[in-house]
Structure prediction request, 359 residues.
Amino acid sequence: MSKLTLLFCFIVVAFGVVVDGTTSKLDVGFYEIKKGDLSLKLTNWGASIISLLFPDKNGKLTDIVLGYDSVKEYMNDTTYFGATVGRVANRIAGAKFTLNGTVYKLVANEKKNTLHGGLIGFSDVVWNVKKHKKDGKHPHIIFTYHSSDGEQGFPGDLLTTVTFTIVDNNQLSVRMKAKALNKATPVNLAQHAYWNLGGHTSGDILSNEIQIFGSHITPVDKDLIPTGKLDPVKGTPYDFLRPAVIKSKFYGLPNGYDINYALDGGTGEKMKPAAMVFERKTGIKMELSTNAPGVQFYTGNYIMDSKGKGGYIYQAHAGLCLETQGFPDSVNHPNFPSQIVFPGKTYKHSMLFKFSNKA
Prediction:
């Protein structure tokens, strides 16, 4: 398998990829969409974000996403850098669930549980590039993936589409859709970019200010499986209802954050604020809104000696994730918003990232 080293040359190359024991010839490449000062680079391996360039307060273009230089590194990745994760993002307890009286046993890939879709989730497959418009008035790229009945244990065929669009000169729209073709199935897709508004080579994100528009979290056990409860954040280390420096809240937390917030504003399809992040050194601010009911706040606690773009070594807390999503393990908690999509129905998940800078 050859290795790509020229990240910014958008050359599509063929790789022999083994999927479910079968070797297929699949095209994997790098792509760019750009408008004004905002430039986004992606790969169709895992429908993944590679980089996002945006000017800091002094006008210097800054890459604010962690990533790799080659397709091979994405294929070997265990951190989900920039990936679209699914069929069900986050964790499913015991790698199983019951739907319509049938018990479905999934592939366990984190101890006895399923994480981000299993051993070969949507982050570890090649997506089809349906359409790509690099620049112009509406630069965008559309990735599609057909997930087969029984893949990683999930029922039914699922046709999935992810569209990345640059809106105006400072906004990134990500729209995810999935249509159940023949069986009811859980669907919970998430975007797993690791953000560092100081720049991906600037060290840790603990000095970033963050605000999360969620008054409750879904508390978890030692294996990070939700208990089924909703706990208020007020007066706890999870309280970011007002902007605060991340490290100022670390007391009582051994490693950092990895928790789902129930967003204020209801569980309907309307867009609502999810989070805001600001880095004073660069002056870059990111505002995130979504129609999803939750957002997973993760501070890259277990990154260790990960060789990233340009040979830079990422360590713990090198980036933060804000994964808008359905609640983790919803398939096993009837009191959580349902993730079940029925045949002929379409799952829709939207997020909007707005970037700005100030001196």
Observations:
- The CA atoms of residues 102 and 155 lie 10 Å apart.
- The first helix runs from residue 71 to 75.
- Residues 1-24 have pLDDT under 50 and may be disordered.
- Helices lie at 71-75.
